[in-house]
TrEMBL record:
Entry superkingdom: Bacteria
Organism: Pseudomonas marvdashtae
Domain Methyltransferase small: residue ranges: 201-371
Stated name of the protein: Ribosomal RNA large subunit methyltransferase G
Gene: rlmG
Residues in RlmG N-terminal domain copies: 2-181
Annotated signal sequence range: none
């Protein structure tokens, strides 16, 4: 893999989660452009720089020792990659303060470097949260590959920060440079809420939650077919989002024990609040993490999963396949993984390579619900 070579540092970087013969590098031309632009401004060692949505730590790791850098984002894997890449490049793993997107920022910041996220609601929330945290003369610089940079990103910068100047494209990357102006404090439109009819619950959704405006159609197909009569089973909702699968299951299985895991901090924040609203103080484990990577082997009886099919801008089934492997390791012999997936993804044959028995529980014209037994 090529090294990231910037005016600040030369780094050997890896992505998370790691996979053999990784076909993708851990930085892009937008990272390089941002670092080159910042270097031209010759920031002092006392400059406070906030990095938002740093894919795998390329930006923040480059700035260690050059400025006072803080990193914030909503991806557990991205923040884990930053720590691993610091160590990989002989830097202390705790060299950079890390602020999950579910937590408040502490400014003021002289520069804010933003990798434009796939979910523009996350960008909007982050820009609103910058209010009161920008130093006099600050700049907010957003970057993305041109093909992933919607016009709406510039509109959001104009609305919440100030005048925006777009750079020329360099190696198919572009910068949006915003100059802060005095503005009326904005009220965040997040979290959003919607109601389900069955079970009859209200679901709250922070800005980066998948399908925050309403239940996604895969989950809608899955809900009527969640397992019942689980007794005291240990159940995990893998990639839990706002927690709807676990909450619906828990309402039908009052003695079961639940663990909810997602790599999005805002998903865990949403799931925590939704669990408490629907189930009060009923015991539950919720954590942001790399799927079931930290789960004890053979410690679960049931895993529920509506697997993702993309990581940031990259589409593929790598993450889903990894989740299936994690579920197999975490399940007891005889335990079961229940999933919903698009028919065309062929999950049945993938699961059959890992599990001793795979059966179709139900199907719609678009989705299949499968049960794979360990």
């Amino acid at each position: 893999m090529p090294l990231l070579d910037s005016p600040f540092a030369q780094l050997d970087l890896i992505r998370q989660p790691e996979q053999p013969n990784e076909p993708l590098q851990a930085f892009d031309a937008a990272d390089e452009y941002l670092l080159a632009f910042l270097a031209e401004q010759q920031p002092s060692a006392e400059s406070r720089v906030l990095v938002l949505n740093d894919g795998f730590g390329a930006l923040a790791a480059s700035l260690v020792g050059k400025v006072k850098v803080t990193s914030s984002g909503d991806s557990f894997l991205a923040l884990q990659a930053l720590e691993k890449n610091l160590v990989r490049n002989n830097l202390p793993f705790d060299a950079i303060p890390i602020v999950p997107a579910s937590e408040a920022l502490t400014g003021p910041f002289d520069r804010v470097l933003i990798k434009v996220p796939k979910t523009l609601a996350l960008l909007e929330e982050q820009l609103i949260r910058l209010q009161g945290h920008l130093a006099p003369g600050a700049q907010v610089i957003a970057a993305a590959m041109v093909k992933h940079l919607p016009r709406a990103a510039g509109d959001l910068l104009e609305r919440y920060i100030g005048t925006v100047q777009a750079s020329l494209a360099v190696k198919k990357a572009r910068l949006l440079i915003a100059t802060p102006q005095a503005m009326t404090p904005a009220v965040s439109p997040y979290p959003t809420r919607y109601w389900l009819d069955e079970p009859k619950i209200e679901l709250l959704n922070h800005a980066n939650v998948f399908c925050r405006e309403g239940l996604d159609i895969g989950t809608r197909a899955f809900l009527p077919h969640l397992p019942k009569n689980l007794g005291t089973a240990r159940v995990a909702d893998l990639g839990c989002g706002n927690g709807v699968l676990a909450i619906a299951s828990a309402l039908h299985n009052p003695e079961a024990h639940y663990t909810l895991v997602d790599e999005s901090y805002m998903a865990i924040q949403s799931a925590t609040e939704n669990w408490q609203a629907a189930l009060g103080q009923r015991e539950v484990t919720l954590r942001a993490g790399d799927g079931l990577a930290g789960q004890e082997p053979q410690s679960l009886d049931v895993v529920l999963c509506n697997p993702p099919f993309h990581q940031q801008q990259v589409v593929g089934d790598f993450l889903a396949w990894r989740m299936f492997q994690q579920a197999r390791e975490a399940l007891v012999v005889g335990g079961a993984l229940y999933i919903v997936g698009n028919r065309h993804l062929g999950y049945h044959s993938k699961l059959a390579r890992l599990f001793r028995g795979v059966e179709q529980v139900a199907a719609t014209p678009k989705f299949v619900i499968l049960k794979a037994r360990r």
